[in-house]
């Protein structure tokens, strides 16, 4: 699963992109200057409002987030991504920057995985350890394969400085509950935001 990284500096309204982040948007590294306006222009028009809302809340409230949305790259190719963001605070408690990872899940979401991933969750819950159960939940919600699901789980663990095993139990509880109707994408974002916020309040590993 292709992944890219970024840092947003809130006071300067400035972005630092990894080489993979440029390529994700259809540019060669350093070809353009990443700006907030450029980033929003490359969001799918139907997703701009939700991205603004999620990112704005992260800046105001200092909460980590996950947001699935579509981007349109410089060659007009549509990609579906899952973006994670982790606010960093200055000594006064204000958000100084947001550091994050963006995973391109276009290929996975191109296939109908509903039955297969539901079976993965059921099997994991019945017979596997807590980490494999969490992987199954991510597979069900985001259409990932097992290796990609573990990559996402590990990314959350790294960014929150919490053990993978400790995060897995909360992830299972959050992602196996709630509605599966039309409001599911919004609920998914809210659920994983809650997971990340809870992780931030936990004691670190001994």
UniProtKB/TrEMBL annotation:
GO terms for molecular function: protein histidine kinase activity; RNA binding. Its EC number is 2.7.13.3. It catalyses: ATP + protein L-histidine = ADP + protein N-phospho-L-histidine. Gene3D superfamilies: 2.10.70.100, PAS domain, Winged helix-like DNA-binding domain superfamily/Winged helix DNA-binding domain. The keyword Phosphoprotein applies. SMART domains: ANTAR. Residues 111-172 form the ANTAR domain. This is histidine kinase. The keyword Zinc does not apply. It is an enzyme of class 2 (transferase). Residues 17-62 form the PAS domain. It comes from the Bacteria. Signal peptide: none annotated. InterPro entries: ANTAR, CheY-like_superfamily, PAS, PAS-like_dom_sf, PAS_fold_3, Sensor_kinase/Photoreceptor, WH-like_DNA-bd_sf. PANTHER family: PAC DOMAIN-CONTAINING PROTEIN, PHYTOCHROME-LIKE PROTEIN CPH1. Keywords: Kinase, Phosphoprotein, Transferase.
């Amino acid at each position: 699963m292709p992944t890219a990284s970024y840092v947003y500096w809130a006071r300067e309204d400035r972005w630092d992109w990894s080489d993979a982040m440029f390529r994700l948007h259809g540019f060669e590294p350093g070809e353009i200057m990443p700006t907030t306006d450029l980033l929003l222009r490359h969001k799918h028009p139907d997703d701009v409002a939700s991205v603004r809302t999620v990112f704005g809340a992260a800046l105001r409230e200092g909460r980590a987030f996950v947001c699935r949305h579509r981007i349109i790259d410089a060659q007009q190719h549509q990609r579906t991504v899952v973006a994670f963001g982790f606010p960093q605070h200055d000594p006064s408690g204000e958000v100084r920057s947001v550091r994050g990872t963006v995973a391109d899940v276009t290929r996975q979401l191109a296939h109908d995985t509903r039955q297969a991933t539901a079976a993965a969750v059921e099997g994991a819950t019945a017979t596997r350890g807590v980490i494999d159960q969490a992987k199954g939940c991510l597979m069900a919600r985001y259409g990932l394969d097992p290796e990609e699901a573990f990559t996402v789980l590990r990314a959350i663990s790294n960014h929150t400085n919490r053990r993978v095993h400790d995060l897995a139990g909360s992830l299972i509880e959050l992602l196996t509950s709630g509605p599966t109707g039309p409001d599911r994408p919004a609920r998914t974002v809210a659920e994983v935001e809650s997971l990340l916020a809870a992780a931030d309040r936990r004691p670190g590993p001994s």
